[in-house]
Structures are given as structure tokens and as C-alpha cells.
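Morning run. Coffee first, then this:
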Amino acid sequence: MYDLIIRGGQVVTPQGVGQWDVAVQGEKIASVGLADPRAEAGRIIDATGKIVVPGGIEPHAHLASLIGMRPEGRLFTLGPEEDTVGMAFGGTTTHIDFCFVHPLTDIPTALARRAERWKGKAYVDYSFHLALGGALPLKIFDQIGDAIRDGFPTFKVFTAEILPPHPKRPPFRLDYGRMQLAMEKIARGGGLMTVHAEDHDLVQFNYERFIEEGRTDGANLALVHTKLSEQLSFNHTIQLAAATGAAIYFVHTSAREGVEAVVEARAHRLPVYAETLHHYACFNADDYRKPRGFCYHTYPSLKFAEDQAALWEGLLRDGVSTTATDEYPTSLEVKLEGKRIDDVTGGNLGAEARMGIIYTEGVVKRGMSLERFADVTSTNAARIMGLYPRKGVIAPGSDADLCLVDPSVSRRLRREDFHVADYSPWENWEIKGWPSMTVLRGKVIVENGRLSAGLGFGQLVARKIDPVILRRPAS
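And here it is:
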């Protein structure tokens, strides 16, 4: 007697796609196989006509985060109690947020504060990357090994300050000396470095030059956060990683040059990975000039049509392993408050739309296989970030985290389709296919347009990265 059986859908597994039963006992998948009419369950869900994929994994979110573009106001993005509602409706069952470690704190203290902020506040499961920024005391780097052993094996660094200096803005950039030290410690402990890669000198000079020349309109952001900046920083970072033996993951890859750098590194058998955002794949710098064009902005900037083509090529084949959002949820007023190159609010409000947009744009429009769809929305993130095989796969013994996609949905998205904030950058987007049911650890948490999970159902998940991911390119 099972607790739940999902029957009749196209089930996407590492072994292929088939019309199989997924049987659930407690929080785990008990079996995946041909329908057995004799099998009994507390509930049997008819998934006929639906596609059953692993619950989505959002590897890059900034909830309850200080809005750095407005440091004097101490404004924060929406918290997990608000934004994870949208994740649940959008088929995402796990997200990884950030715990920032600055010079006046340390890793254990920062982690404890962040975990307390999330405790009892999330509708989906979660974990944290540790973000190392500023002139950190060297003793903090000695805490990296303990953090990895405690289940937090991923560490984020910025190679550039993304905005001009401000006395109330905390530092984000990690200098290359400390970056090398962090790589050495992370590699030794079995962790992974995630990198926001832009060239600091180029970005800061561009701000200075454009402001002096009076070219401060935010539509010029792609000329400040340039393709060359990404190219230089990706290549520099890859060289540093190769020298230290570290595995690296480039967050929000935005340009063709970034994709090419990653493809070349992987051809040399280096453990280098890249994510992109569905925003980068679907919008470009021309969209900044639309009436609500800054709704689409994050840092680095949107780029150009050739970059969109390269990102899709990477997603469909190799070079880009995951899709994320850089989730940074605010109200429309806050998102559109900035108009200049040095104050446009970064980040996106896209976690709820991620699975559906990638299905429409990838599977329907570009012929992405269902296996690859599962890879770039869930499985690869699970493997790279140390959640696999507990998460990211439909297999016996894994958490029963599932998303049912209804391919018959065909319409334009409306504001009423979303459950976070007072706008979505995806309003009026034409879709073909959309998540219709979400299951987290065996519990149906979204069904028929209703959220049934209670606040706090999401749990903190410890992670450990498979050494194979850290030794050679996979995923």
C-alpha cells in the first residue's frame, strides 16, 4: 500500500521518458515502472496528458536581501515567506539562497543568522551558498572546511563591484589573492566556487567615463557591463581555478564570450560549469528602451541577439548546465525607481515562471529534449550543488519532488497568473505548457491553482558534492 501513485503521465528519468507509474511512500519515491493495476495507494493521481519531471531546483536566489542600489534606505527584497509561494506554483521544490560573509562577521555567525531568518518561513526546501566579500580577515578562510562538512559546500565570490562605491554599500568584490586562497581551501575540502565574473577595472572605469560624459541613461547598461568584461574575467578566473585545482560555476552567464570560455575549459577537461537566466535568453539590451524595460535588468546587464543565440546553443547542447533567475523580488515601484546606469535595481522576479518559460522556449520552440529540460531545470543543479541523488531525479530512494507540466496550456500570461509582488516581467508572454501540480517530499503542495502546504513546510537541506563533479566536467 503506497501513500501516492502518479499514473498515466510521461515520466522523465535518467533512463529515458516513459508512461510509468511513480509510487511514493512517505517522503520518498518507492518505485518507477509500468502501471500495475493491482497496486493500491492512499491516493492515485491521473496524470494522463501531463509530463512528470523532477521538481525544479532554483540555484540562485536573493530573498530577504539588502537592496544594494538603495543602501541609504535599508530596503530588502521579499522574504522566503512571500517568494517561495511563487516557486511552489511554478514547480520549483528547492532553492539555494545566499549567506553573505563580510569583514565584520564570520561564517558560523552569518550562517546562524541566515538559517534563523528562514526557519519556519519557506514553502519549499532550501539551502545557502556562502558569499565571501570584501577585505576578509585571513582567519575566516580557515572556517571554509567546517562549513563544507556542515553541508554548505558552495561559495560565491564577485570579481568586480557591480556599482560605483557608496559609503553605505557593503563590499562584494573579493580580490584575486583572497580568491586564490579561497579556491585552495574549497578545493581541499570538497567544495565548489561560484563566481560573478566581470572585470572590475573595466566596469568601474565605464561608470566613471559614462557619468562624466553625461551618458547616464540606464539604457546604456550593456555598454558599462560589457561583453569584453565578461570575457576577460571568465578567462582569468578559469586560469586561477586551473592553477589551484578548484571547480568553478559561473553564475548568470550573459554573453557569447562567457559561453565560449566555458566550452573551451570543459574541452580541456576542467571542472567548469555555467548557469544562465531565462531573462538573458529571452530579453536583450534593446528591451531596456521599452516603457517598463528595467523590469528585465539584472547585473551583469542584458546583452545582444548573438548572445541570446549562444546561450540557447549552450542550453540545448553543452556549455550552459543550468537555468536560474538571480531572483531578487521587489515591488514594481522599487524595481523601476532607478533610471540611471548607476541606480537601476538589479535582480529579477522570475522563479515562478522559470520552468514554464524554459519549457515553452526550449522544448516547444527549439526542440529541447525532455531529458535535457529536466537537466537544465533540476538535475544538473542538483548534481553540481550537492543535492543529488536526494533531489533532482525521479528514481527510487530520492525525495518525491515532482512537477507536472500541462503541455495543453496555450495562452498569454496575465498578471493574475502570478503569486508574488504586484507585477511580473513575464506578463503578456505567449506560453505553450505550464506547471499544473507540484509535489514536495511526497506531499501535493500545489493543485488546481491552490497552495496546500503550510508556511514552514520547506526544510533546510544539507548538501555534499560528488567528487566526480569536482574532478572533471559533468552535467
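The domain at 2-54+393-451 is CATH 2.30.40.10 (Urease, subunit C; domain 1). Good start to the day.
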